[in-house]
Amino acid sequence: MAILIGREHPAAILRGEVGRALTSHGSLVLVTGEAGVGKSTLVAEAAGHAVAAGAQVLSAACWEGEGAPGYWPWVQVVRRLNPAADVFESARTPFELYDAVTAQLVALSRERPVVIVLEDLHWADAASLKLLEFVVRHAWFERILVIGTYREGEAELPPELKATTLALSGLGREEVGELVARTTGLRPDDELVTEIHRRTGGNPFFVEQAARLWQGGSPLDTIPAEVRAAVERRLSRLSGEVRETLRAAAVLGREFADEVLAASVGRGAGSSAPGVAAGVGRGVAVPLGQAVAAKLVAPLGEGRHAFVHDLVRETLYAELDEAGRRAGHAAALAALGSTAAYPASLAHHAYLAEVPEAPALLLAAALDAEARLADEEAVGHYRRALELVPGAERARRTGIELDLGLTLQRIGEHEEGGRAIEAAIAAARELDDPGLLAHAALKLYHLGFPDFVREAHRRLVRGEAASTSADDVGEQLSGLAADRARHAGDDQALGFTLLARLSAIWRPGTAEERVALADELAEVATRANDTQHLLHALSWRASALLELGDPAHTAADQDFLRQAERSGLPLFEHEAMVIRTRHALLQGRFDEARALSETTRELGEQPYVSGAELRWTQMLSAALLQGRFDEADALLAEMRAARSPNLPLFAGVTAAERGDARGALNHLTRLMAGGEDLLTWMAPLWLRFQAQAAALSKDPELCQNAREAIAPHLGQWAVTSTIVVDGPFEHWAAVLDAAQGRWRAAADGFTAAYRAADRLGSRPWSVLSRAHLAEALLAAGEDPGALLADVAREAEELGMRVRLPQRAASVFRLDGDVWTLTFAGRTAHLPDAKGLRDLRTLMGSPGTDIPAVELLNPAGGAEAVAARRMGGDAVLDDEAKAQYRRRLELLDDEIDRASVRGNDQQVAALDAERQALLSELRKAVGLGGRSRRLGDEAERARKAVTNRIRNTLRQLDDRHPDLAAHLRASISTGATCRYQPPDPITWTW
Question: For the Anaphase-promoting complex subunit domain, which residue ranges apply (predicted)?
Answer without folding.
Answer: 403-447, 483-541
